[in-house]
Amino acid sequence: MTAMRFFLCGWLVLVVSCAPQTDPARQMRPHVWVASEGLCEPETVIHDADTDRLIVSNICGFSKNAKGYLSVLDLDGTAQTLRWIEGLNAPAGLAIHGRTLYVADLDRVHLTDLNQGQVREVLGPFPDAKAFNDIAVDADGTVYVSDSARHQVIKIDKGVSTAFPNAEVRFTYANGLHIDGRDLYVGGEKLWVIDRPSGQVKEIAIDGLTDIDGIETDGRSGLTVSLVGGDVWHLPQNGPPTIWTAPGLSSTNHAYLPQSDLVLVPTGYNNTVIAFQAR
After folding, report:
1. What global pTM score does this model have?
2. Residues 6+ apart with CB under 8 A from 147
3. CA-CA distance, 97 to 120, in Å (whole number)?
4. Taking residues 181-201, what's their average pLDDT?
5. C-alpha dist (Å) from residue 154 to 35, 91, 135, 136, 165
6. Residue 253 DSSP one-character state
7. What 3-state DSSP class applies to 4?
8. DSSP labels for 47-115?
9. Local structure of residue 224 (DSSP, 8 states)
């Protein structure tokens, strides 16, 4: 994907403003399905492309209570296994690298074998961690996790955690993460992009785009972005943004399947996952 930080006008603005922006088009989309059975504060849904199944993280109380778990759903929302991995604390962000599922869990990261359905390694707990949220893993297996309470992105390499790009940089309410080549997108109060080799941080300013939870590719060199308790925005490579919404939508960390244009949105305290067609 061409790095989006180079598109300076239109919908995407870096630090400075271009011409005044009009309100994005808002599209109400009907449900394809709604899953609710056995979910408890679902935070993230991710698509395991190799098995064509969905994995959902259930926080179930944001504390060290061992009540958190992962669920497995079919693409039609039917539950395969409601309590696939249990005994977690506050499982939030999910990322897949190879056949390993990385789970951000409050102050640690679980590495789960997707084929065996077992946790095979735990990174941490890290004593400075306060509230691990989303997670991203690069091609080399380096882990990046947002710590919302510390307003930082944490890099975990060979089991060692450091603030990224350094300890002085703050991302207010750091939340959603997405890696695209050398770029690491960070969502929180705003949307930022970090050039990972240099550590340079730039803000992407779009009117109305705030309180960002999930960041995913649209498969067409653009992004899809979910807002905390709100809608899902589509930021195409070229052209204005579009807002996708659906009845009862209260977004946390969504998934987007470009091949089918299916948007999958866990709704947190509403205890559902909502699926709708973007087009």
Report:
1. 0.93
2. 129, 130, 131, 132, 133, 153, 154, 174
3. 14
4. 98
5. 32, 17, 9, 10, 8
6. B
7. helix
8. EETTTTEEEEEE-SSSSSSS-EEEEEE-TTS-EEEEEEEEEESSEEEEEEETTEEEEEEBTEEEEEETT
9. E
Q: How confident is the model at residue 21 (pLDDT cuts 50, 70, 90)?
A: low
Give the confidence band of 23 by pLDDT, cuts at 50, 70, 90.
confident
Q: What is the pLDDT of residue 171?
A: 98
Query: Residue 71 phi/psi, 5° resolution?
Result: -115, 155
pLDDT in tens, 227-258: 999 999 999 999 999 999 999 999 999 999 99
Whether residue 88 contacts residue 104, with contact meaning beta carbons closer than 8 Å, is answered with: no
Q: What is the helix, strand, coil percentage profile of the chain, to 5?
A: 0, 50, 45
Distance, in Å, from the CA atom of 121 to the CA atom of 123, rounded to the nearest integer, reads 7
* DSSP 8-class letter at 165: S
| pLDDT value of position 22 | 76
Cα dihedral 133, 267, 4, 101 sign:
positive
In which order are the strands placed within the sheet that holds 212-217? 25-28, 242-245, 232-235, 223-227, 212-217
From residue 153, how far is each of 107, 121, 186 by CA, in Å? 13, 21, 8
Whether residue 156 contacts residue 143, with contact meaning beta carbons closer than 8 Å, is answered with: yes
